[in-house]
Amino acid sequence: MRLPDEGFALVAGYLDPAQAGALRELYRDDARFRSRVVMERHTFGRGEYKYFANPLPAVVAELRDRLYRELVPIANEWMERLGSPERYPQTHQAFLADCFDADQKCPTPLLLKYESGDYNRLHQDVYGPVAFPLQATLYLSRPGEEFEGGEVVLAETQPRAQTRVHVLAPRQGDLLVFPTRYAPRNGTRGAYRVAFKHGVGTVTRGTRFTLGIPFHDAL
Description:
Blueprint: E1 9-11, H1 17-25, E2 33-38, E3 45-46, E4 48-52, H2 58-81, H3 92-101, E5 110-115, E6 119-123, E7 134-139, E8 147-149, E9 152-157, E10 164-168, E11 175-179, E12 182-187, E13 190-200, E14 203-214
Antiparallel strand pairs: 1-11, 2-4, 3-6, 4-5, 5-14, 6-13, 7-11, 7-14, 8-14, 9-10, 9-13, 12-13
């Protein structure tokens, strides 16, 4: 996988409708999750999400491992461009061992559910000192049929400039890969960091499900 200069990529049809539907159905089984978060209680927005417990469902673990393998060359290239000595191991299991050593032992893949009036404020998903620079979201519901609104918002802020906003409307089965905290940009004096946050616009009708895949675990 390659990312364009914007630092994020929307991949159409990464999952077929049956795969998306099967992932969405996992939300009904509370035994698969370690916690449920009601966003309004924490001023995160409105809506709710559930963090999977270990062991992750096989399909979620396989997606996480496969995407990590595809993205780790990009992550290491970003570190090199930014002049950072940090490098990420080639396998996800080795990276999770680094998380474990930092006491980050709680799995972070999550299913998110939004209903009419729900939204997610701009934020970053950083759960401890060890963080992978990219993360992924898979879209599990059909816009225009099962819900309306709920556009994805990516906000990037570069030094001495106003914030630029990207608004995306993924389809069911699409994959979005985007920065966890920052992405490199090329300047006249070499690469520099552009900070990213992400959020979700207000859902105006229906129900919207997504699968979030951070690659680092949480404290």
